[in-house]
Each structure stands twice: as C-alpha cells, then as structure tokens.
Amino acid sequence: MIKRPEEPTLVTGKITDSKGLPLPGTSVDVIGYPSVGTIADFDGNYSLTAPVGASELRFLFIGYEEEKRSIASRVDVKLKAIGEDLSLIIGLVSGIKSLKYGVEVFAGYKQMDAKFLYRSNNDVNSILEVEGGIQPKLWELQPKFTGYYREVNYNYSSYAYIQHAFGLQVEQEVLWDWLKLNGTLGYLEHTERAGQLSEIDYGVGLWLGNLSIRAFDFEANTSYHFLKSMRQIEGKTKLSFLSFILETDYSVLYNKDKAGSISIFRSILSYKLWKELYLRAGYERIREMKNVVFGIRYQLF
C-alpha cells in the first residue's frame, strides 16, 4: 500500500533513456491531478510540487514506454524505447590459425533473455555456453536469476581437459544502479587427463557498471568460486567509446597440484559499420594456444 504524504512534496529528478542520454520535453504529471505537471528541460531535469494526497507520477515521451513511479523527494527515471525489450542478435566468428568456426546468438524479451555461444578449433574441441535469465520484481527488489550451462573440451598435445558446469546465479542491485552483488551456486564436473573430480561450485561476485563519462561507458564483472580442491576466478569488462566497443572475458581455474591448470582469455574489439551491424576482431588465448578471431555481429530487431 502506497503511503500518501500529509503535506505537499517537492519532487525533483532526471529523465534519461536506457543509454543514460537526457530526454528533454518528457511530460511529467501527477496521477489523479490533471492540472499538476511539468516537462523536462534540455538536460532531462524536472521539478514539480505534488499536492497533498498524491501518490504517483507518470512519465510520457513519444516513442518510449510509459513509466509510473511513487512520489518521493528525488525520482530519477530511465525510459525504454518501444520495442527495445525485444531483440535478437546473431554473431558469426571465424579466425586465423586454429579457430574453425563459431556462432553466438542472443535473444531477449522484456525481463527475459537467453544466450547461446559455440566455438570450435583444432586445439580446443569445443566451448559451449548456454544461459537464460529472468528478472522479476519481488516486493521492492528486482534480482536477476540466471541459469547457465558451460562445457569446455580442451586437448593440447598430451594435456586433456573437460569441464561441465551448470548452476544458478543471482544478481541484485545495491548502492545505486551502478553497483551489484551476485552469488553463484552450481555443480562442477572436472576431468583432467585420467582423473575426474565432481564438486559443488559456489561463489560470490561484484558487478560495477553504468559508469559514463561523456562518450565513455564502462562496466566490469568479476567473481570468485570456492571448491574443495580448486579455485576459479572469472570476469568480464566492457568499454564503449563512440562507434567502438572493447569486450574482454577471462577465466582461470587452478588446483593444489597444478596451479593455473586451465586459463581462457578473450578480447574482442567491435566497430559499428551501419545501424546495428558490427565488424569484430580480437585475440584469444586458451592455455598455450593463441588465436586471432574476426567476424560480424548484427542485431536483427
């Protein structure tokens, strides 16, 4: 139940799109009080006085979805473009030296998303990643639940390695919208040469993102996994600047007998050619194997 203030409330805030750009001219009105409202200025800022008994604000801008928020002294809003929640991204990767082929598909709708990634080459038989997530609203929280499955088949000279991992990751925003914590609970099956080890995998992570400075936008995600005989650290970073996007991801799994038994590092630079068409090139290192990759990425809708 929304608590109604007993005296007029001065409300200020800023209205932006999903990329953090201001939306000047956005209409802000008090629900139930048609004569009380305002519009955002050139920088997306607004200010109005909500009368006694008012409980909600409504934000309207052409081409964007309507938003409703409870009245408070400060209400910042990010509006979503109509159709922005629905997307399908397909990427094709190939490479010089040892990468034979790869495909990357991402699909999302509203608060649900899914990702499929498969790559194969001469030294790494295959890397398969499948993820699916949903972000429901639970009371005042909106955590993201992501189920995942990863399979890595690796063979380099006399070294053989297979890993199957599946589990659930929960992510929740804390301390504003640029800092998140995540926790992981899953099951890891690790086969190295002739030995096999199966353990419960659990870990904690930190996500830092939406740090924008002029034309720059940066985010990073790192997590640490605890197992009885092994430890694993993995992370991702993304830096956007004008038409360029630099993405890196890394994973290091080590045990007591052989530190750094498997390591994966990948860095991809994308350049926006036209609309949602990107040219991609990068570098990949999996243990001793090195590779140059290139390809295209296109968002269909």
What's the helix and strand layout?
Layout: E1 9-17, E2 27-30, E3 33-39, E4 45-50, E5 56-60, E6 67-70, E7 77-79, E8 87-96, E9 99-109, E10 112-121, E11 124-134, E12 144-156, E13 159-173, E14 179-192, E15 195-213, E16 216-226, E17 230-241, E18 244-255, E19 262-274, E20 277-286, E21 289-299
Parallel strand pairs: 1-7
Antiparallel strand pairs: 1-4, 2-3, 2-5, 5-6, 8-9, 8-21, 9-10, 10-11, 11-12, 12-13, 13-14, 14-15, 15-16, 16-17, 17-18, 18-19, 19-20, 20-21
Key terms:
301 residues, mainly beta, Immunoglobulin-like, Porin, 2 domains, 14-stranded antiparallel β-barrel, four-stranded antiparallel beta sheet, elongated
Structural write-up:
The protein has a 14-stranded antiparallel β-barrel. A four-stranded antiparallel sheet has the order 3-2-5-6, with no helix packed on it. A three-stranded mixed sheet has the order 4-1-7, with no helix packed on it. It is mainly beta and 301 residues long. It is built from no helices and 21 strands. The radius of gyration is 23 Å and the shape is elongated.
